Amino acid sequence: MTTQTEMNQSFIAKIAGELHLLTTQVRATVSLIEEGATVPFIARYRKEVTGSLDEVAIESIRDRLAQLKELASRMDAILASLEERDLLTEELKDRVQSAETLAALEDIYLPYRPKRRTRATIAKEQGLEPLASILWQQEDMDVAAEAALAVDPEKGVASPGEALQGARDIMAEWVSEDSTARAQIRRLFWTKGALTSKLSHGKESEAAKYRDYFDWGEPLSQAPSHRVLAMLRGEKESMLTLHLLPPEEEALTELEALFVKHSNDSSQQVSLAIQDSYKRLLGPSLETEARNEAKERADEVATRVFADNLRQLLLASPLGQKSLLAIDPGLRTGCKLAVLDSLGKFIESATIFPLLGERQSAEAAQTVLSLCQRHDTQVIAVGNGTGGRETETFLRGLGLGSGIQIVMVSESGASIYSASPAAREEFPDMDITVRGAVSIGRRLMDPLAELVKIDPRSIGVGQYQHDVDQSLLQSKLNDVVVSCVNGVGVEVNTASRQLLSYVSGLGPSLAKAIQDYRDANGGFKSRRDLLKVPRLGPKAFEQAAGFLRIGNGDQPLDASAVHPESYKLVQSMAKTQGCSVNDLMTDEAIRSRVDLDSYVSDTVGLPTLKDIMAELARPGRDPRQEFEPFAFDESVQNIQDLETGMRLPGLVTNVTAFGAFVDVGVHQDGLVHISQLADRFVRDPGEIVKVNQRVTVTVLEVDIDRKRISLSMKSGPKAQPSND
Fold it and tell me: Are 669 and 660 in contact (CB under 8 A)?
């Protein structure tokens, strides 16, 4: 019996080989993960142990370890099942234990799996397995005579023809359950398989959006993820009929090469069984498997695109702490205003109707000017939804002066937050539209802190997000949020419960406990005070402390990313230099005199020491870029204003496998197809553009009826739209 230790060693060696890492790196990482360490903590504070592996490598180790454990668990279940039914031989046990993938494992187990009643099992019940075995040997014989011997009317075999049919049913099942055959045909599906789609009968009008796929076919190996997901969605909605098959002749040729040994009458029966097996059993089984794997691969790509987009969105430049007037624009229902102080605290609200005539516009102007004056407003944040550009034009006409900045802000996620439990808890008596305005303002101040309050799947970036595996999507997006939150750091005395829940080692329960302790006892004076929080023990403290910031606390290092476990080291540096820790943090000349090599030990190496010195130089540094205002072309406010050939500034709102969507300020994002992203061939749009990136685009085509805008980022004025 393989022990857990032996199994882990086997996993470690395998992972190291697959990921091209040192065995020592993988072993150390696996050990930390199994001790409960988080990915951000390992990447940031255990560099000496892992050989400075980054988050991507650590996540890859974690995920591959989980896959191998799943394989091992399934292997144990299969071995137990075989042993329980007295089917386990040493040879079979070795085959099971040598399986490298779940597919290979299931292929080995398939002949022994408890079955529902099939044509083959019925034939066996009729006593036709000996006939099948004789035919399978493919020796020269009188096939008709052998079949006649198997006739047994009492068992339902009335003629030699029925006996041969039953024998072929048994052989067909043997073919379909042969692991070598399955492996070869599985390979053929991926190398030669074609994915085809047809319009479902009678769906001509309903399936208009799938027009491109009414008669479509392409090699599976070349089908991009977005087309696979689009066709699968069309099939799910009964608009398309899909097939995924390799050339039948090639499949049959490979199978005959495996099983047909001679050219005689019995071989002919085997050949007929092979044809039946492929069409009725093996082909459909592997088609289902290939479709599922194609879906999984497409899910992986789509999820990766979504994760990349989310990262860019979460790490968007924060405006910072400024007094702000947030506006959720509206036409007939009016614009909802929310005044926020520099910390994002709600002060008051109002409703204005600037777009419904001169009288209402004048009243709206007076309201805005009064609010800005009374609250010393520095910035006005305007949602980019319906009426957003019109409201922006109204505001710019008020003569607010250079002291008040007007910024358009994405409304994506604001409506989700406004109706969420988090919003109801924070503002139980507030109108839902005012909550939306608050969210718009806070998103400008700190996108990360605001967006973590909603399910990342609701943010509106990515492709086919509702079609991909939701557990996979949730897991990957959660990794991104955790990475971003811990990469930026969290001020423990002002952070929301939602933001705290993503801090390494915490989670929702401890985040609430921190919030409750803070509400009851006031702000934390030091990181050590966190240990007073109920249920927050030493392990959670170890994982979380380095990512939590306490500004103006008792310990200056608490405002930095220096982990408390390194405080004594920093204090030793300061003592050696004859200064205080604060002096060490504020005086570059003192820091330059520190000999890092003298502080290297068995537990602390140069990577950690260099991180410490970088933190001392810029304690609590926000890794996000500084905020810079962006303005759309003032002459363009709706899709009717667009003309072919216009050059416009825009913001990338979404990146997909087939291109990028760009906001040019007309309430409808335009598409820059992958063929129009650059003057060169582009394989991956993510190489060229990122979410929130500022770009200059050329209008290629405007379809007002379908609300479609084609854009180009090519340098030449004669860029043409793609036919794809």
Answer: no
